[in-house]
Amino acid sequence: MTTKLAHRPFTPNYAVPPGDSLVELLDAVGLSQADLAERTGRPKKTINEIAKGKAAITPETALQLERVLGFPSSYWNTLEQNYRAALARIEERQRLSQHIGWLSNFPITEMVKRSWINARTDKVELVEELLKFFGVASPEAWNEVWMRGKEATAFRKSSTHDSTELSLTATWLRKGELNGREVKCEPFDATRFKAALIKVRDLTSHDDINSSLKTMTAACAAAGVAVVLVPEFPKLGICGATRWLSSDKALIQLSLHYKRADQLWFSFFHEAGHILLHGKRDIFIEQKKASENLQEIEANNFSSDFLIPPEQYHKFLAQRDFSLSTISNFAKSLNIAPGIVVGRLQHDKHIGYQVGTIFFVRIDWAK
């Protein structure tokens, strides 16, 4: 596989002061700096400092140069603006060069492979790519947003502690946020969302997972919830996350961590539970390691009960018949996938983890 490099306009790593152009023009028309000072009414020292790049060409000076030398003031203003911008780029590059080590916290190679950022051979340019991806101006600002902002609260609630793991989680969440903002949604409406969940529940029994996911995302978008699927990073262990992108747009982000359809549906309804049960200011992260946080427990219960109503589940358990045919018939009566029933029975330790695996539907990302 060949790596595609994005086209970038040429940006020199040097700055040419407008004074260079001024000196060349004076030589061309046969004027000295003293002559120019006399004709513009500017001190000789000021003209000399402009020529050496020590003093800026102000808009007023640009107008005077236009009258004396015939070049429009916009020309001189543009030269000055470009010069100051080039100086700022050089200074910024020097500052960012001190943060090259910051890159080691992030999955740069994988991000480039997934086309989340552009490939760069220059390390400083890679730092710039990463900052653009996160929408921050500096690594210090990244720390403020992701390590001390509301995202950090979600990290502390989850089992994530290692600094590299925090950076991986932040990267995954940011991609979900970017994808979610591209999803066109109606304003959030809880009633419509509950109706969408009933529709999605029926989709779990369908064989075509891609078609079901397409229908699910459309139904949720119509209720004000953007649903996005973002591949996780190896060993990160994140199943899903929920956050509000605005007061009337929620985001459900899923990872396909377990590569099983029943687990995907459980994670979806888990995140839906956060939207309906909990506040809009928090970010909720569902990880492979079960959390004892009350809100996570509530979201788990919401998902379990929505997929398999408690009353019907208890009646089913009372029969003490967990044969494959009985499981299949029970799932059919609920209009859900039998793998969901098996997953619930395994989790509740009514059957072993080797029982009923024939009903599990494996799913993976398309190559």
UniProtKB/TrEMBL annotation:
PROSITE patterns on file: HTH_CROC1
Protein name: Helix-turn-helix domain-containing protein
Annotated HTH cro/C1-type domain residues: 22-76
InterPro entries given in the database record: Cro/C1-type_HTH (IPR001387), IrrE_HExxH (IPR010359), Lambda_DNA-bd_dom_sf (IPR010982), Rad_response_metalloprotease (IPR052345)
Family: Belongs to the short-chain fatty acyl-CoA assimilation regulator (ScfR) family.
